[in-house]
Amino acid sequence: MMKRLLRLLTELSSRKWVSQAAGSFANSQASRRLIPRFAKSYGINVEEAEKAMHEYATLNDFFTRKLKPGMRPLVQETDRLLSPVDALITGMGTIKEGVILNVKGQDYTLEELLHQSPHAQKYKNGYFFVLYLSPTDYHRIHAPVTGTTVESEHVPGKVYPVNDFGLRHMPRVLSRNERLITYIRHEQGEVSVVKVGALNVSSIRYTDDAVLPAYERGQDMAYFEFGSTIVLLTENGTFSPSADLELGSRVRMGESLGTLHTKSAKRPLN
């Protein structure tokens, strides 16, 4: 009964205007006084932030903060797929004939997730990561590879929560929520960075107000205004995951998720 009630309340609060209202407050001067309490409540390491807390004009300004140089060093090996974010791994594994299996008990088709894009064929037997960003995390999104932008797409949608409750009890949240999808071609293949909006995420924004024609590994791509999720996809036969990663692992931006390789030169697990 309680689960049904929570689901109903979530459905009612998933309208875009709710997130827009929350976003309006977070962008107001009145929200500034909440920054110290917000940082303390979520255990945010404010020493990593580019500026002191009192220098941020609004709560959202603080939430989308950049970090001091050197806070997220990139793994040295250039054939590694970088984590694009600080996050908790809530899903990972091989894609089975176009289906992402068992993300918190639910399956997702690539056709739904990628909005019927013809790119889906490239990933139907690839690899996926679901990376959840909590309010504690650094919320900027960085390029996981060096490469050229093939295509980008904005998919309008709902703003259901993408936390544990949302993923378990709301139907197909990752493919129903608003998404920004960026396809990047690199030396060994292609990756898709699917940025999924969520409850109280008023928007997902590209850092330069538009997708760039090319990215360097670790380059700032975009950011979430409040917490959300990245679904990272690798092209069929071009990736081997790190052996030390599992569901529930925490990763930081710039760390290795595994090794990229050409289809004809698959390497063993790291």
UniProtKB/TrEMBL annotation:
Its cofactor is pyruvate. The active site is at residues 86, 142, 228. It catalyses: a 1,2-diacyl-sn-glycero-3-phospho-L-serine + H(+) = a 1,2-diacyl-sn-glycero-3-phosphoethanolamine + CO2. Pathway: Lipid metabolism; Phospholipid metabolism; phosphatidylethanolamine biosynthesis; phosphatidylethanolamine from CDP-diacylglycerol: step 2/2. Its EC number is 4.1.1.65. It comes from the Bacteria. InterPro entries: PS_Dcarbxylase, PSD-B, PSD_type1_pro. One of its GO terms (molecular function) is phosphatidylserine decarboxylase activity. HAMAP family: PS_decarb_PSD_B_type1 (MF_00662). This is Phosphatidylserine decarboxylase proenzyme. It comes from Paenibacillus arenosi. The gene is psd.
